[in-house]
Amino acid sequence: MVSCNWATTALLTLLTLSSSGVHAAPKKYKPDPDQIKEKRQLLQTINTNQPLTRVPITLATIGTIGTIGPTFTRDPATLSTTATLLTLGTLPATRIPVTLQTVATNTLPTLGTLSATRIPATLQTLATTSSTLPVYTPPTTPPGYGYTTPGTTSSSSIRTTTSSTRTSSTSATPTYTPVTGANTTCYNRLKIDVLQRTDPDQFNMLVLAWQKIQASPDSDPFSHYQLSGIHGAPYIPWQMGPGSYDYNRGYCTHGSALFTTWHRPYLLALEQSLFHAAMAIANQFTPTAVRTQYLAAAGRVRLPYWDWSDPVTQSYLPPITMQQTVTVTRPDGSGNPVTATITNPLFAYNFLSSTSVAPFGTPWNTRLSTRRYPDGSWNDRSYLASSSMQSGFTSRVTNTYNAFLSTTYNLFSNRVEGVHDSIHGAVGGGGQMSYVAYSAFDPIFWLHHCNVDRLMAMFQATSPSLFVTPASAVGTFARPVPPNTIDDASTDLFPFRRADGSWYKSSHLHPANTIWGMRYGYPEVPCSYQTRTPAELDTFTTGQVNTLYGGGRTLPGTSREWNVRLLIDQAEIPGGYDIYVYGGTRPQDPYSDPYGKGYIGSLSSMSMGSVDQYKQSRIRFVDVSLNSYLKEYGYGGADPYKITEYIRKDLTYTIIANGKPCYFQDLYTAKYAVYSRDVYDSGKDDVLPYYTSDPYYHLNVTEGYVGGIKYLDEILYPVKVDGSREVPWAEVNSTRIQT
Ligand SMILES: *[C@@H]1O[C@H](CO)[C@@H](O)[C@H](O)[C@H]1NC(C)=O
Ligand SMILES: *[C@@H]1O[C@H](CO)[C@@H](O)[C@H](O)[C@H]1NC(C)=O
Ligand SMILES: *[C@@H]1O[C@H](CO)[C@@H](O)[C@H](O)[C@H]1NC(C)=O
């Protein structure tokens, strides 16, 4: 029997690992011989009595590339706010085959038991304190719910020390450094390729700084090791005292309204570390002119980003992240500049020793460097990451653009998170990036998340009235949440403190101009706009969004946006899962090449390894735009019946759970639905398109298929593993249309 459940296969996997070493060869998995299972769950709504008809995957006639949906010019003032219901003809109840191929899988590394070894929290207090970073020693306060919160702001006795003040290693109160970013004036974070080309000195200092913090001792809170470790493993407190932490997960927030906001101070902490490291290196140059030049460059050091939806560089990995070495100018022993070729800190992170990885679960406790698409000998194959990314490019652009049309902040956050999740999978290929617990160790993680932060800043600029609204909470390392807890804009974003010692909250990160106060901007939310009005910023940023990601606009008029929504209760598959959608064609072997030809999007859990045995029950969904696929296959035109027919026939789905094939009929909560809605586009450069109808679900595109919905409730009010129903957190109030 095929099982999508990690727990039932864990033992087998562990046995395999121990007999063949950690670099187990990819295994072949038999396909499920019994595609149609008996109704396993009472609430399963599919009609399992229907005979299974396999439909060969055929490329439908490819017509000329036309516009999508009916395009006609209308005066926005007269736009009706009612949905245009499409009249659909009778569709045959043919099933889409859930794959029957015998395939090898790309075996995703499976985690064994998590070692209980951790770096003692006392080590935190021994970190070096730089005289250039203000160090505060806050008072200890009584424990609050679930954990001790040292240094809550209720007490004001915060001491600033300029010389190195170390707390004794027996103190319960850690010394900590607030997260304030760089200390020079505001500079824009640049696209990595642009940084390399246009400011080689800053790039030089960035590389040297990153090399330096990767070499810093594991005990240094601002080392690459500890900053990366905040996200997930090794599950140790960061600049927080003893407490009742949840050692099953990291501090990061996923599937939550706080996804975008939590990562903002997180990135700022790395930027701060890189900045000060760059300054320290620049100061080592002895010739005055050289020192002056590189101090100026170090002052500009900001985290660069990787724009994976950029129309020019598309979704390829930035070349610098794929090269093993890089040439730099650095101070030699006597401070003179020398040219040297060094191990590239943007290519991979090399752990300092086996002690560094000892706290990780098997097999990560033997892997001493980060890799993408590692082969059996743990060699890097970033070129596979690059081609996987590229095949999702066109739909990724549409999904990125659509995120800006979101009518609530939470929906925007969910859309960006969905795009982001699938990138973790496409880049990792079983390497660290595929796992929440380990992803932040790969340097590309930071460039990837910097882009997420940039999209957040752009959305804040273009939708200044929208921000985080209350939604059901997600537990983290320092915030174990009891049932019915709510996350909102005033939830503490542990473990990051502001200059005054208080915890960051999302509310501190709103509106868009707050990033300039943290001394960074983006080309689309530039530091140069600090003296302009929010309206001017809105106009400027909107123009940038339209130019960068609005390539497919057919102007002006109303068109139809087609989407497939994939949905699951994440608790149903402990470990990691991905549900892939293919349009028109699909890879010959989707299990070994899930991002191959035909890939248009996916719902990705970002495997959390053993951690996910305790995954909180929560509905996760992603909307994958079908428009680029429809356009590519020439399925445009004004006949929505045709479109639904194509979609019904040509969309296929593949589920991989913990490296193995899994099927909708094995799952209780996994569903997919197809909907469309009207979008009005004025064609003006400084105006974004907006929805003029609510989503209309095309039930007869999906009904009759295993996993496809038959009733609206299945997608609007989905079933969780315990049989209860809930509105997904990002969906609350999100379907409001512009009037
Ligand atoms: C498809 O939907 C349309 C519109 O709701 C409806 O008129 C039609 O009967 C449906 N067809 C099938 C096969 O359910
Ligand atoms: C900024 O940081 C640098 C080095 O990291 C330090 O030398 C300088 O004094 C700091 N400037 C301010 C204004 O804090
Ligand atoms: C959603 O809308 C309803 C009605 O407008 C309102 O009462 C409720 O507070 C809103 N919920 C959120 C989370 O914004």
From TrEMBL:
<feature type="signal peptide">
    <location>
        <begin position="1"/>
        <end position="24"/>
    </location>
</feature>
<keyword id="KW-0503">Monooxygenase</keyword>
<dbReference type="GO" id="GO:0004503">
    <property type="term" value="F:tyrosinase activity"/>
</dbReference>
<comment type="similarity">
    <text>Belongs to the tyrosinase family.</text>
</comment>
<dbReference type="Pfam" id="PF00264">
    <property type="entry name" value="Tyrosinase"/>
</dbReference>
<feature type="domain" description="Tyrosinase copper-binding">
    <location>
        <begin position="254"/>
        <end position="271"/>
    </location>
</feature>
<dbReference type="GO" id="GO:0042438">
    <property type="term" value="P:melanin biosynthetic process"/>
</dbReference>
<feature type="region of interest" description="Disordered">
    <location>
        <begin position="133"/>
        <end position="175"/>
    </location>
</feature>
<feature type="domain" description="Tyrosinase copper-binding">
    <location>
        <begin position="442"/>
        <end position="453"/>
    </location>
</feature>
<dbReference type="InterPro" id="IPR050316">
    <property type="entry name" value="Tyrosinase/Hemocyanin"/>
</dbReference>
<keyword id="KW-0479">Metal-binding</keyword>
<dbReference type="Pfam" id="PF18132">
    <property type="entry name" value="Tyrosinase_C"/>
</dbReference>
<keyword id="KW-0732">Signal</keyword>
<dbReference type="InterPro" id="IPR041640">
    <property type="entry name" value="Tyrosinase_C"/>
</dbReference>
<keyword id="KW-0560">Oxidoreductase</keyword>
<protein>
    <recommendedName>
        <fullName>tyrosinase</fullName>
        <ecNumber>1.14.18.1</ecNumber>
    </recommendedName>
</protein>
<dbReference type="InterPro" id="IPR002227">
    <property type="entry name" value="Tyrosinase_Cu-bd"/>
</dbReference>
<feature type="compositionally biased region" description="Low complexity">
    <location>
        <begin position="143"/>
        <end position="175"/>
    </location>
</feature>
<keyword id="KW-0186">Copper</keyword>
<dbReference type="InterPro" id="IPR008922">
    <property type="entry name" value="Di-copper_centre_dom_sf"/>
</dbReference>
<keyword id="KW-0470">Melanin biosynthesis</keyword>
<dbReference type="GO" id="GO:0046872">
    <property type="term" value="F:metal ion binding"/>
</dbReference>
